[in-house]
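Researcher: Go.
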Amino acid sequence: YWDNKLKTTDIKIFICGSSIRMMEKHFFNYSSPHYGRRTKQFKLQPLGFSALKDFFPSAGLEELLAIYAVFGGTPAYMLEYENDIFETIRTRMLRKEEFLHKDAEFILREELREPRYYFSIIRSIAFGNTTTGRIMNDTGITKDVVAKYLSTLQDLDIIERHVPVTENIKSRKGIYRIKDNYFRFYFRFIFPYMEYIEMGEEDFVLREIKTNFQRYSGLVFEYVVTDLIKENRNLIQMQFTRIGSWWSAGDEIDIVAINENTGEILFGEVKYTNKLVGVKTLSTLREKAKNVKWGTDNRPEHYLVISKSGFEKDIMDKDVTLIDLNTLEKITKIQNHN
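Model: Structure:
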């Protein structure tokens, strides 16, 4: 009917689907009757952190970060929020009749043939096992199988591979990260405690979540800050061609930005704690920066410290860019206004 009647008209047909496997089967598979008939395709990504202000205009930055850390950028998930993050977790995720209770599992079961092994791998990554070796040791799954499943999870946009910003994509230092915060939260705090939830132990699970939530949110804060810098390049004192993080032999730097044209490099530390940050943090950052092998011996270096709770006086007069929560709050308001 399309070929004989509709193709020459102004009619446009939009087909949406949340299952990558289903969409590929019906529109990208050569044996499908729809193959070759699509004119365009779009892969919709989750909303970024900056978009949350449109959904929750009265929320402060910390509240927005908590929402984003639990629900990610999927509007249907975000709209389940009920003014208090822990009460929302209790009523929308810890209760068996709610759709968020197992939606991550349902989505993966729809996409995957052997979900049990994939669940084990995603759970392992959620608990901080981010290299192939550590995932193997944690899950007991062989190297070949882990590699195959990691590749599939990347194809499905569930996880992504990162390398230090100073390395190329083929670096052996690559680590894996769960892309979507809802999946990351689910496999860190819901999936491992499913037995307790089934027994009605909501209070116990919620205590576990509260105990570990600030540490969990700290990593999300690092990613959010990096994205905000990409969107607001005047936040730091140099132009950059690449930005990310860096790690090697036990050392890690939260933010590293480089300019491959000028040879400049910036090192940044992100602190999501309730304590003021002082000069000791800057001194430690400077020491770690010496281990970053990039550029020339006399490369221009810049330093950045971002703190949730502000700064002590001893760091104020140092040669470093300081960014606190108030500055980030203003940026998100400006972006929302634009």
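Model: The chain has 15 helices and seven strands.
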